[in-house]
Amino acid sequence: MKFFLCIFEHVLVVFFCDDRAWIAVGGYYLMMTDRKIKGELCLEDHKGKTFSIPRKNALLPNLGLGFLICPNADQSFEFKKRLTQAKECAGRVRTAAITGTEAWLTLVTRVLPRITYPFGLTRFTKKQLHTMAIVLDNTFLPKLGI
After folding, report:
1. H-helix or E-strand spanning residue 130
2. Other CB atoms closer than 10 Å to residue 79's CB: what's the count?
3. Alpha helices in the chain (DSSP H)
4. Per-residue model confidence as pLDDT tens digits over 53-83
5. Which residues contact 7 (CB under 8 A, 6 or more apart)?
6. Residue 17, strand partner residues
7. Which of 8, 35, 74, 79 is most buried (CB neighbours < 10 A)?
8. What is the span of the domain harbouring residue 6?
9. Are the beta carbons of 93 and 137 closer than 8 angstroms?
10. Does the residue 87 lie in any domain?
11. Residue 127, Cα to own-chain centre: how many angstroms?
């Protein structure tokens, strides 16, 4: 077990890690996905309060900045979350008695910003984007009179 100390902007960071967290493959270090790896990230602020971040499996997502990030770059969790949000929003609008103008304003100011927030940092396929678009189109186009 190794540990590293680092002071960054008045925060003492103590990182405990196991030597088996990374494996050398073909000249590159790859993260191991084994859940048996022990260790945690401990942060201590300038007042002495300690925070620990539990280690998760590399195949499980972490919630960061409002969207799900997997260390192995798997974005299926984020896609499922955004598709579920699209279906929920579509279901609410479908059952509401709103005019075409209200539907347009709802789409532009509420639904699209909520669903498309992580698109700058994700790489959804065309098929995944098309799936989300179908859910929204089937609800909003009739409400808009198209």
Report:
1. helix 126-144
2. 19
3. 76-95, 100-106, 112-116, 126-144
4. 666 666 778 776 677 877 777 888 889 999 9
5. 13
6. 2
7. 79
8. 2-55
9. no
10. yes
11. 19
